[in-house]
Each structure stands twice: as C-alpha cells, then as structure tokens.
Amino acid sequence: MKTLKELMIDQLKELYNAEIQLKILIEKMAYQTSSENLRHSFEQLSKDTEAQHHKLDRVFALLGIDGKENVTLISSRELQESYNSLWKASPRRKSEM
After folding, report:
1. What is residue 21's predicted lDDT score, i.e. its pLDDT?
2. Which of the four pLDDT bands, split at 50, 70 and 90, describes residue 75?
3. Most exposed among 14, 27, 34, 56, judged by the fewest C-beta atoms under 10 Å?
4. What value does the mean pLDDT take over residues 70-79?
C-alpha cells in the first residue's frame, strides 16, 4: 500500500507530464493560428505553463526527489491525434474548407 506522500508524488508527476504535453500543444496551435491576438494569447499561456514547470521543479526539490524521473509522455502519435482533433474543430479550419 502506498503512503500518502507516494500518492502525492505520483499525482505531482502526472501533473508535470500534463503540463509538458499542454505546452507542446499550445505551441503548435500558436504556430498554426493566423490571428495575431490568438497567437499572443497562446504565447502567454505557454509562458504560464513554463512557470508551472518551474514551480513543480521547486516542489520536487523540496521533497528531495527527481520529478522528471519516470516521466511518461503520451506517444507522438497520440499527441498528433489530439492536435489534429483540435485543428479540425477550429473555426479557422472550418472557414478554409
């Protein structure tokens, strides 16, 4: 049975993984958009997400663990499928059809 600390660490690692994947998707969407305002919003969100990485790194340091150890990103294929789904549903994409 896991301790409460082990469960917290597992959850923090999952959060760290999610932040990494979110940053990748945000950067792809920023690159694809034709709207300068939307691009700026995506870039700001990317910076905010990067700040979250640094906060989580500090938490891991305080706990005395390597938060990046055993990081499991979803596969490139799964990430691309998620991105494609978002791209197909975007208003810009629909207007281009």
Report:
1. 85
2. low
3. 34
4. 59
Q: How many whole angstroms separate alpha carbon 19 and alpha carbon 79?
A: 13
Contacts of 23 (CB under 8 A, 6+ apart): 46, 49, 50, 53
Tokens of 21: 């994947």
Q: What's residue 17's pLDDT?
A: 85
Crossing angle, helix 76-89 and helix 4-32, to 10 degrees?
Answer: 50
pLDDT of residue 95: 47
Q: Which of 7, 16, 14 is nearest to 56 (CA)?
A: 16
